[in-house]
Every structure is written in C-alpha cells, then in structure tokens.
Amino acid sequence: MTAIMENNDFIGRLRRKLGTDAGKTKPEGPARRFIVQVTRDGRDVQRLVFDHPPSIGAIAARVGTEPYVVSVEVMEMGAAGTIAAE
Q1: Cα separations (Å) of 51 from 36, 54, 58, 70, 79?
Q2: Helix or strand or coil: residue 20?
Q3: What average pLDDT does the segment 34-52 reach?
Q4: Residue 57's domain spans which residues?
C-alpha cells in the first residue's frame, strides 16, 4: 500500500526529481499585480486587482459566476515604483 501511495504522490516525486526541498521558499522577485477584466453585458468592463495569480474561485468570490473574463494582465512593479506590463 505504501508503494502505491508513493507512486500517486506526484508532488513528492517531482520534488525528489528536481532536488528541491519542501521547506524552501521561492526568492522574492519584483512585486506583481494581476489585473483581471470581466464583463457582464459585453460593453462595460470591471477591473479586478489581485496580489497573487487569481484562481477561478477567487474571481467568482468577487464578482459571482455570471460575468465573462475578458483579459488577464500581469503588471510588474519596477524598482522605482513604476509599472511595466508583461
């Protein structure tokens, strides 16, 4: 049974293969903002700003499940506080 569980542990296998430690955190990079534009009627667009990549659930929690996602943008905050689009 343990061998079967190890074979199903995709994340664990990937970490072992890449030699990464589960406790390590990713180094801090430039600050990013994720801007999702949604519409309900096809004419008016609402902008949602997230600090982390949003999931569908996070978007639905803010605007419900009826709106359509129009676009997703990633904005990087530069060292001088400027914003650069990716």
Answers
A1: 11, 8, 12, 19, 17
A2: coil
A3: 95
A4: 25-85
Which of helix, strand or coil describes residue 47?
A: strand
In a domain, 46, yes or no: yes
* 68 within a domain of the structure (yes/no): yes
- The residue assigned the tokens 């905050």 is 77
- Residue 58, SS3 per DSSP: helix
Are 69 and 37 in contact, with CB atoms under 8 Å apart?
yes
Q: What is the pLDDT of residue 54?
A: 93
- The predicted model scores a pTM of 0.58
Q: Which two tokens stand for residue 35?
A: 């801007």
DSSP secondary structure letters along 22-36? TT--PPP-S-EEEEE
Domain total for the chain?
1
* Residue where the block lists tokens 């309900």: 40
